[in-house]
Design a protein that fits this description.
The chain is of the alpha/beta class. Helix content is about 40%, strand content about 20%. The longest helix has 22 residues.
Length: about 425
């Protein structure tokens, strides 16, 4: 059966599971249309604040006006990944949605050098994901919990892994090697892998459709700015460099992560200030970035509000944090132009990229040498899910695109399922 053309397309859906270190995001998505039949989030897992929210709209038609229904915190806290996923499975059964599921697509954070494409999960794949936990200790084990629960709950369904690192496997050696002894790469896999691949791929593909050009001919720089932030340069449709590295700590400054720092600072912290490895890990991953510099919050909205409020005690600190944030992103975008001989334009995505006109304006102001000029009116109007080009007519284009990683996972899972079915039919 060809999933993409079947008359049943409207009723078939992929269950998309995204297990983070302390959260589980899930959706039941029709791969062709991107319509969500059900979606939800369990967060603050294993803490007394653990909560779960599920929204569903089990009527298939987009034109029907039936209201979305939602349920919040029907599990008593604390609960963990497994309990949250089991609650999801019960809900899918109670709503008679299980028969609509054709496969489960799992977002897996680290695929190392093993996976550049979606893959059908078997015991070997699970072993590899487990071995790669040394590169993503907070994420790959959580991803495996998601896979195990879904295998048990839906033993007849295909489970497919979509890797966050996969899109960046096209990076050349000059982009992925660090300037450290080669043996650390060849024996221990210490290299740059990049993350947010599904998001960068999605927004690049959206722009290709907007400008009516095959993705394989597009040259773009994409800035995914959320709590985690990364910049990716896409040459002829492929990622050729990206700012996140072996772990999601490298590159531009983020909500609570420092991004690039002089590695000598770590030695200094240990030798002069007696920091332990755990303290350094917490400092750089959880106490730095916008939060660390502002001493107020990691949330861009809170910082913008404080910056524009002269009476706020942290107004100046908020401005410093946001200014450094924007400057570092602009520098990263400019440096990535060195990978290209042509540039079709820039893309902003992620919670900040999609919504903060101020951040976009600050970044674009610093990129006039690359011929970017922001149109203030379009910049203000393009927020909260609206997509479009926010540059002036004479400027190089700059698109704001709402990302949708779940839809990519659903589409790629359906495509892989089709390929497998077509191959087995022709054998
Ligand atoms: P995650 O990386 O966790 O998926 P998101 O992509 O949801 O994060 O982005 C979260 C960030 O987006 C937060 O810093 C938040 O303040 C910011 N954000 C969301 N809406 C706005 C807005 N209207 N203006 C400025 N920043 C916003």
């Amino acid at each position: 059966m060809d999933i993409s053309t079947s008359s049943q397309t409207n009723t078939l859906a992929i269950l998309v599971i995204n297990c983070g270190s302390s959260s589980v995001k899930f959706s039941l998505i029709q791969p062709k249309s991107g319509i969500n039949l059900l979606s939800g989030l369990a967060e603050c897992l294993t803490t007394p604040q653990a909560s779960i929210k599920i929204k569903y709209n089990i009527n298939d038609s987009i034109n029907d006006n039936n209201e979305n229904q939602s349920e919040t915190s029907f599990l008593s806290a604390p609960f963990d990944h497994q309990q949250a996923l089991n609650a999801l499975v019960s809900k899918l059964k109670a709503l008679d949605l299980v028969e609509k599921i054709i496969a489960v697509g799992h977002r897996v954070v680290h695929g190392g050098e093993h996976y550049s494409k979606p893959i059908l999960i078997n015991d070997d794949v699970k072993r590899t994901i487990n071995n790669l936990a040394k590169l993503a200790p907070l994420h790959n084990p959580a991803n495996l919990i998601g896979i195990n629960v879904c295998q048990k709950a839906f033993p007849k369904l295909s489970q497919i892994a979509i890797f966050d690192t996969a899109f960046h496997q096209s990076m050349p050696e000059k982009a992925y090697l660090y300037g450290i002894p080669f043996e650390l790469y060849s024996k221990h896999g210490i290299r740059r892998y990049g993350f947010h691949g599904t998001s960068h791929y999605f927004v690049a593909n959206q722009v290709a459709q907007l400008i009516n050009k095959p993705l394989e001919q597009c040259n773009l720089i994409s800035a995914h700015l959320g709590n985690g932030c990364s910049v990716t340069v896409i040459k002829n449709g492929k990622s050729v460099d990206t700012s996140l590295g072996m772990t999601p700590l490298e590159g531009v400054m983020m909500g609570t992560r420092s991004g690039d720092i002089d590695a000598g600072i770590i030695v200094h912290l240990v030798e002069q200030l007696s920091y332990s490895i755990e303290q350094i890990d917490t400092l750089l991953n959880k106490q730095s970035g916008l939060l660390g510099l502002s001493t107020l919050s990691n949330d861009c909205r809170t910082l913008e509000a404080a910056m524009f409020d002269d009476n706020h005690s942290k107004s100046a600190q908020a401005k410093i944090a946001l200014t450094v944030f924007c400057y570092r992103i602009a520098k990263s975008i400019a440096s990535f132009s060195a990978s290209l001989t042509q540039l079709d334009g820039l893309i902003f995505t992620g919670g900040i990229g999609e919504n903060s006109s101020w951040v976009r304006q600050q970044i674009l102001k610093q990129l006039s040498l690359l011929n970017f000029q922001v149109c203030e009116e379009k910049n203000q109007a393009t927020r909260f899910g609206t997509s479009g080009n926010i540059a002036t007519k004479s400027s190089r284009p700059c698109w704001v695109i709402a990302t949708n990683e779940e839809w990519v996972i659903a589409q790629q899972s359906a495509q892989l399922l089709n390929t497998i079915k077509n191959n087995s039919a022709s054998n």
